Amino acid sequence: MTATLVLGGARSGKTGHALELARASGLKKFMIVTAPAVDESMATRIARHRAERANESWTVFEEQTDVARLARRIARPDRVVVIDCLTLWLSNLFFQDTDLAREADRLAAALAGAEGPIVAISNEIGLGVSPPTQIGNDFRDAQGLLNQRIARACDTVVLVAAGLPLKLK
What would the pLDDT profile of 16-51 be if each residue is shown by its tens digit? Predict the structure, then answer.
């Protein structure tokens, strides 16, 4: 089936665009959220996201690390699955003793072989100023490599800037 990657910067409109794609599909809406509520700010953000979708019929799964397995399990032709977001998923794995390239390849294979449409959201963080720390540079590089792997696996890639979607692939 079809896999779509929606890229963009912070507050670019990428999540809104991904959700609109899901709504427009007319399929049952499923979501995989990857954000852990590690502090009050993140807990507030998660609560806001839940409230925004409260009047819609979303089936939501929380999965912080094994997104590939879950995506394979829940993707079906009568469902659209939104993964929000790959950047937080990567950050969940970044400080673990994990082979990030292998995990990215697992996720790419899951997207390419999914039995139903999947829309994955990811941040494009490599367009700004270089981070001042080595760990920041390492994460930026890992995010860029992840985005490249996922983009190759997807049928469609959209970059959202200032709320405007630009189809790249």
Answer: 999 999 999 999 999 999 987 777 877 777 777 766
Q: Give the domains, in start order, of the chain with CATH numbers.
A: 3-167 (3.40.50.300)
49 in active site: yes
Identify the band that residue 117 occupies on the pLDDT scale cut at 50, 70 and 90: very high
pTM of the complete model: 0.93
Given a contact cutoff of 8 angstroms between Cβ atoms, the answer to whether 64 and 89 are in contact is yes
Distance of CA 161 to the CA centre of its chain: 16
Q: Phi, psi (5° rounding) for residue 13?
A: 105, 10
CA-CA distance, 145 to 3, in Å (whole number)? 18
The rounded Cα 76 to chain-centroid distance in angstroms is 18
Biggest alpha carbon distance in the chain? Answer: 46
d(CA 103, CA 124): 19
Please answer whether residues 78 and 27 qualify as being in contact, where contact means their C-beta atoms are separated by less than 8 angstroms: yes
Which residue among 28, 49, 72, 76 is the active-site one? 49
Distances from the Cα of 22 to the Cα of 53, 96, 117, 159, 169, angstroms? 12, 32, 9, 16, 18
